Amino acid sequence: MVAILTLLTDFGLQDAYVGVLKGTIAKINPQIQVIDLSHHIPPQNIRAASFCLANAFPHFPQHTVHLAVVDPGVGGSRKSVAIKFDQGYVVAPDNGLCSQLMQEQKALGAVNLTNFKYWLTPSPSKTFHGRDIFAPVAAHLAGGVAMTELGESIAPESLVMLPALDVVPTPTGLLGRIQYIDHFGNLITNISSDRVAGKIWYLKVGGKRISYRHAYGGVPVGQSIALIGSHGYIEIATNQGNASQELECTWGDPVEVTLV
What we know:
Elements: E1 4-9, H1 17-28, E2 33-38, H2 46-56, E3 64-69, E4 80-85, E5 88-93, H3 99-104, E6 107-112, H4 129-142, E7 152-154, E8 168-170, E9 173-181, E10 187-192, E11 201-205, E12 208-211, E13 224-228, E14 233-238, H5 243-246, E15 254-259
């Protein structure tokens, strides 16, 4: 079976950082199949990375290793960790990046990556742990090294979690937040489809009322629409436009669903 290792970073593609990660992995095990999830997470946006990781994770085969590096605290006191789930592993900084995944799937174990035998160097750079710690550890893990060999066991409950974006019931419906904005400017809320299943509803965002339709083409070009996205959350889009720009909304803005 070919080992699979995914990459999720905020490194962009202008610089050589992503290539260096892949080169580091290839030097350890050139047989690993490396798949890019994204390298365009907004810089330092841990919550965006958490959303993308959680939504990608279920679509990969058993034993896949996911390397996620969005790390504004690199070189500081935060831990470097590997986490085991039923379907695979995540190697990441302990800064809340795995929060959404851990809310959706049970973590079966975790280690603090203290065994420098599996690092690129025992004296890692203070600015590039992706190269010196995370990539080599992920490559060894994907190649069959037991997670328990990578460092000291820690309780999954001790890992950093981002503050929850709660969905709050209101007298007329639900109050949620925008948790992610994709490349198209679509606004993904934290209100899951099961909260409105079988109901008639509309939403308000930025003071504007948006009606529900089944697909992007359910409204004329340039008009905004509310729908259920492929990720299972209520999404706000503009047909062939950019909803984030046109509705002047951004990360964390409130969204109110009214049940009719």
